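Hi L.,

You mentioned the student needs an example of a multi-chain input paired with its predicted structure. This one should do, with 1042 residues in total across all chains.
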Amino acid sequence: MSGSNSAKIVARNVAAFRRFGDQSGITQVIAGNPAATRLESGVGNCFPGLECDLRNLERRFFPFLEAEAIGNLLLIVAIDMDAVERGGAAGSVTPADVAVYRTLADDVAASRFVFVSRMAGSFGPLGQMAFDLALIAMDGEAEVQGDLSDTSSGVGRRPSDAWTAIRLLTEGIDVTLTFRRQGAAGARPTLTAPRARYLDDNGALAAVFLPGELTQSLCSPWTHDFRDCGCFYWASNHPDIAQPVLPSGGATGQSWQRDVPWERSARVVGIQPPEPATDTSSQPVEMRHYEINNRWQELHFVLGRREIVAPYASGATAPGAPLQNLNTLIEHLRYAAGVELAVAQEYLCAAYSLKPITDPGVAGNAALRDDIRASRAELMRIAIGEMRHTRAVNDIIRGMMPPGTFEPALRVASRVPGAAGQMRDVSMRAATKAAVKDFIDVEAPSAGVDGLYSRILATLVAPPADVAPLATDEWREAIRSIIAEGEDHFQTFLDMQEWLQEHAEAAYLRSVAPARPPAGHAAHLELQTAYGGMLESLRDGYRKGRFLGATEINAARTSMVMPGGIDVLADAVAGQGFLVVFDPPAGADFAPLDPPA
Amino acid sequence: MNVITHLPAPSAAPLYKRFRSARGEHLLVVPHSRLFDLPPEVAADLDLRPEEAQRLASALGETAPGEAPLDLVVEPQPQSLSLNVSSACNLACSYCYADKGAFGGKQADRMKHATAIAAVDRLLTVADPERPITIGFIGGEPLLNRALIHSVVLYAGRAGNDRGLDVRFSITTNGTTLLPADIDLFRTHPFAVTVSIDGDAATQDAQRPDTRGRGTFARLVERLAPLLAEPGRAQVAARLTVTAGALDLATRLSAVYALGFSEAGVAPLRTAKDNANIDGDGWQAYLDELIAVARSELAGARSGRTIRLTNLAVALKQIHAGASSPYPCGAGGGYFSVAADGHWYACHRAIGEDDFILSNSEGLDSHRRRRFLTARHVHAQKPCNTCWARYLCSGSCHQEAATRTEAGCDFIRGWLTFCLAAYCELATERPDYFVASYPIRGIQP
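Structure written out for the whole complex:
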């Protein structure tokens, strides 16, 4: 949430809107996964998948180089000379290294092989070491086997192969590569640089990876050896085992919980569960290679570890009772917007309460540092998600109101739904373990905010007479999306609870119980001014509506992320040891809002 | 619609144009004329990294569902015709491209009734019945063949009614021979009446004398007054030709508005036998004049008035919609002009020019038509195909392409740049102007 790159461009004329008017048109041009995608976002249940070939993460382990590991060969396939030259000009790459990079680039451009013949560095648990890699026969010299042997065991063991070696390299610590250039047997130039990062500060993939790069080597299920390969290069990581398709009449025994071979040859979905997977079966229960070519379509989707053959229906959310009329629905929607704002503020307050990762007590502790970094990034992501929900709910309210009567819903709720149907006061506090527990409760399925939206959705699905003409698919989908994102938030807070439980609160918080800033506190006042301005922009933008209000809504967004914006101001308050809180600006538009009766 | 061929833009073609208005920094994405507001820091960043701006524009400029790809050469059905009904004129404007309707002797006769009806029949048969069909009358002075016009309007109106077609009419006239019966015809049919008038009495009389050298302003005003006072279904607009010697647009337009015209457009003379055409430095002077009158219209628009200068009103409307075409007009595509001898030409300016005949005795000559449409696609025009204005100007009038000059093109780019900024300013200050005039689907005013 920083930097001017976050600023949006705003569509101005009809043609610019038309470009984004059709959802299918939008999805066509999005290159790769969204920026917020994490490695753990994949659907595969065996591997930490992103529907990517994880080996591709290692292709850019060394600055400015792109390398391909083939067994124990490590071939250089590209050199980013533009970046090298810029580094040279800026003084971050020495002239001698620039010359080496240029030599290698010339070789690659002329289709001459460049291999890494020797690698020295810090290989994680294996420690500091150096070894030779394999080389093909060239320039009259014989093939070189190198020091890696496809096995790795015993004292002083080496990595098993070139890719594993790179995988083990410790980020940020120097690696030295020695190059063998085709046609230049005598010269063995070297380069030394820190092992490059593959994630950025927020845990997202580093920008160095181009769209499509991580998926470039994936295969497809209709290829011959699909059944053989457990890992790496399938478009979606496929399980070896899964729970079987449930019978239409419902499961009747424990045997339906067993793990069965996912690629089994017998595809009958019947009243008996398939045979369980074993590693000693005498029967070839899996499809043979030729069968995979023909029958890959018969493989079942797996959701939540279980195979399904019918459209997925979540049974998690119990439908709420519909609200009685339009007025009540609007009242609940306005309150829902207020709850979104309230919890967004709680999450922001918690995020800023975390120690910065540059804190001396944090920087030296990798586990603590990573947990703080991940928690902060997730709190920010979820807070931004709640802000988007606020916008979505306002759009729905506008759509439900007679033309000209809409007033933006930007009053922050005073109380929010908590555990077990209880309401609790909105509470600004640090990200203590108790606070995270409350966050889990507020996002829990069927309870908290989810319960509130369930009733709204039920009202749109089975609308009373005065809602019926207004209950469109668009609004139902919008509410369903909010509910679905709430489930994601719930899961994320459970993860966060797990990350933080290992650490003492004093270790990861700037202060366990920071005070509200005192009256007249300069940084706090500056933050309130910016916050008030942001809310006013939002109000003006929402009033104008989706098309005409784009400029104001963008201004509100920019006021949060721009240099010197709300993000920076809030950080300053927290840096001085105080809670980051947001006071309601004057006026009825922003007065705190109580729950509907 | 038949796709004839793909004609990609050259790789050197710019995909964006950066510009600034009083409202901030903007980006025109050239394909499909999409406009975006840029935060200042993004604008500064893109200006430093043109390759990044080009990449962004390339993504933003992709053809969206429902949009016509810009690199296709297609052969649409004819949707509008102009009938060159008269080869004579009662005026003797020195700059006339039509040689008073005779087109250098190639159209010596006026159009016969049977020729006109045959053309109308053919149009009504092939046109898309779901879209408006337009029949125009042009000359010479078309009203010199008044009986034919009246007859064709009644015929086409009735035929359209019978078949459920939306048939509309247009006429370009000097107005000096208007009769009450003509005015009745215009009032009772959906007529776009364009009156050629060059401004105040002095300019009109000097530039548009009759064949005996007498001024025509007084006569025109007298004949036209009843129509302007009570136009009925007619939409009446003035068209002013601007010659090198008479650039004072403000005075001339004021005189025209004073007559009761609610809209007027100006057209610079690009080619003229008497060398009165605008050229060289004249283009900058003309641009300055045009911008000056446009600014005064914009000031009026901000306070709630409609824009009377059609050059500006149309440009703003097109920019709002994102008009984007590889052709400057419908010539040879949806529009044809029928000569007195019954031949279908690509356009009324081309009557008598063999290269522009697109019909034969069988009907439309598909071969000639395809050749014309392929050659006239803006991607086939140099240097137009590497100009940022290529889908807004689209190479400009086919007839005038041969006399295109750098100065003339600079004028067009200058005018478009002005209009782009004016659009961003007006759309911010008076968004209802566009939403009310040209609603965006799904957006409430």
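You could point out the following to them. The domain at 326-514 of chain A is CATH 1.20.1260.10 (Ferritin). The longest helix of chain A spans residues 366-400.

Best wishes,
N.
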